[in-house]
Amino acid sequence: MPNEPRFSIVTCTWNSAATLGDTLASLASQTFRDFEHIVVDGGSRDGTLDMLAAYAHDAPGNRRILHDIGGGISRAMNRGIEAARGEIVAHLHGDDYYAGPDVLARVARHFDDTGAAWVIGKIQVLRDGVLAQPYPMQPFSYQAYAAGQTSIPHPAVFVRRACFDQVGGFDPRLRYAMDIDLWLRLARHAPPAQLDATLAVFREHAGSISSANKLRAREEEFRVRRRHASQAPLAFLVYCLRYARRMRMLRAQQHIAAGNSS
């Protein structure tokens, strides 16, 4: 039986041909080569599957494609975790890419240095072709995260596979805040080790789920954070104040947009 790879990188795709090339190229450029790549496709009908067939053909042992995985993004991410053989699992979707060729090498060293259960870093947002500067990394605490005062960017999260056996995977009932729910469960199990470096680029566009449905995303996030309120009740109260302010702003923006379009 071959040795398990250090990393399993899971990429979920659905009609991602326009952006997937950057994802694949960023993985091909990594100086740390002890990883497998699992692509979970939701039934693409553009050129995505042709790209993936050629990609998997070049290195069939370390590149696997799971086809026609329906049921939403949470189920797709869970299928990738279930298929993973690596010690450490990360999700890098077909819209996103790693920020440089040394990302996996730096993350591997950080796991070795800290012995952490999971590692988080920073991202840059690519919006309309322009890379925004990454936000400064704030010290992590469960209370700060529960209060919504700090964020955990999904493309820059790396988790030991054994942790999923302990806390479970992504909740398939959730469409927007499944990552927040999982990070709150993971953080109760063990705090993440922070790596103050930009690890990934997140491509924001009109089709992004969180961008296209901001009100619904915020409402689901509130329900998720309320699930965990007993773990940090004061932090949840702080979050409620922030939530009320943000919802007022979003509704006002929607009202203005509706008026401009009429």
Automatic annotation (TrEMBL):
Residues covered by the Glycosyltransferase 2-like domain: 8-137
EC number: 2.4.-.-
Keywords of the record: Glycosyltransferase, Transferase
The keyword Glycosyltransferase is annotated on this UniProt entry: yes
GO molecular function (one): glycosyltransferase activity
EC class of the enzyme, as a word: transferase
Protein name as catalogued: Glycosyltransferase family 2 protein
Lineage: Bacteria, Pseudomonadati, Pseudomonadota, Betaproteobacteria, Burkholderiales
